[in-house]
Design a protein that fits this description.
With 358 residues, the protein is α/β, with parallel strands linked by helices. Helix content is 36%, strand content 17%.
């Protein structure tokens, strides 16, 4: 079964009816076209973004999310800024300030700044050069996702002696978080296509339910057997022996292998270590930040209290109660079994780090 939801008329041979395209450039509209992930799974709404302010808002609201998708958003945001400057008569200083606003919209995900930085040096060559480079990043990400998924699946099948594997994943690192295919969910797709995947436990991912709303949406579309569980069940599921490995994406990977991902990932890592099963981190090389030596240098984004003190607009905690809402946590490298990128795999828990792939 495939839902076949597209936000663009992209019908190239490397796309399939199961590919979700969460972000694309709409040449006719001259705008970034987003699949609004805040409306899923109930509605597949689209947003046309023609201003940097609207793009920053979409990023902050998580209408577009996931480290690789944010990289593409950053690159396309430079194009939006160039077009907006031409339309509104901005000088270079105001244009550059708008680009900086996009670059800093979410501090933990290194891909957002990376995407901006990849295309910004081309401003002197003109708008079309910037757009071409941004679109090339999209294609590169799709190819990288497929390659890193294959590498991670091979690594797992070499080490786990079961006909079909049982997995647990946290948050959403699928096509919706990338240019297509996915990272953590891409690994699951690869195993599923080989007939080697039995069942996926998807954590609901509080407080915004990316697992229940988005990962389950993708797994259902792909026909992959799955269940959704509350986040607090994850450690028990692992220690009861119900899964063979955990696989997650990443928002930033430090040079030593410390990994920032959706808050709750650290709990999975500790449980995997206690159970003696692998924790797999799947991410494109653009998520690796060799300029950050270790996890102590990763800024953890704090989001608004209303996300955890309210539900459907109704307050669920007493008046006067304050919220603590870190969007991410950092898993030390000693609990990361393997990091799979398109460049290769390293095993931080056994002494190899992303530096070895540089």
């Amino acid at each position: 079964m495939c839902l076949g939801v597209f936000v663009t008329n992209d019908q190239r041979p490397d796309r399939t009816a199961c590919d979700l395209v969460p972000i694309a450039w709409d040449e006719v509209a001259g705008a970034v076209r987003l699949l609004d992930q805040t409306a899923l799974p109930g509605r597949a709404d689209q947003r046309l973004v023609r201003s940097t302010a609207d793009l920053v808002q979409a990023i902050a609201e998580l209408a577009v999310r996931g480290a690789p998708s944010l990289g593409i958003a950053g690159a396309l945001g430079v194009v939006v800024a160039v077009d907006e400057a031409a339309r509104e008569g901005w000088d270079e200083a105001r244009r550059d300030a708008a680009i900086d606003a996009v670059r800093g919209a979410r501090p933990t995900a290194v891909n957002l700044a990376w995407g901006v930085d990849q295309v910004r040096p081309l401003l002197g060559q003109g708008r079309d050069a910037v757009l071409a480079a941004a679109l090339a990043l999209t294609e590169d990400n799709l190819a990288a996702n497929r390659e890193l998924s294959r590498r991670a699946a091979d690594w797992l099948l070499e080490r786990i002696d079961r006909p079909r594997l049982r997995a647990i994943t946290h948050c959403n690192a699928g096509a919706l978080a990338t240019a297509g295919w996915g990272t953590a969910l891409g690994v699951l797709r690869d195993l599923h296509e080989r007939g080697r995947l039995e069942l996926v436990y998807a954590d609901e991912t509080r407080p915004l339910l990316q697992g229940a709303r988005l990962t389950a949406y993708e797994l259902a579309a792909l026909g992959i057997p799955h269940v959704v569980q509350v986040d607090s069940a994850a450690s028990s599921t692992i220690l009861r022996g119900l899964v063979d490995f955990a696989v997650v994406g990443a928002d930033r990977i430090a040079a030593n292998g410390d990994t920032a991902n959706k808050v709750g990932t650290l709990g999975l890592a500790l449980a995997c270590d206690a159970a003696g099963i692998p924790l797999v981190v799947a991410a494109p090389w653009s998520t690796v930040d060799l300029s950050t030596a270790d996890g102590s240098g990763i800024v953890v984004e704090q989001r608004g209290s209303q996300e955890i003190l309210q539900w459907a607009g109704e307050r669920t905690a007493p008046e006067g109660t304050q919220g603590f809402n870190p969007a991410f946590d950092v898993t030390p490298s000693r609990w990361v079994s393997v990091i799979a990128t398109e460049r290769g795999v390293v095993e931080p828990a056994h002494g190899t780090t992303p530096r070895d792939l540089a």
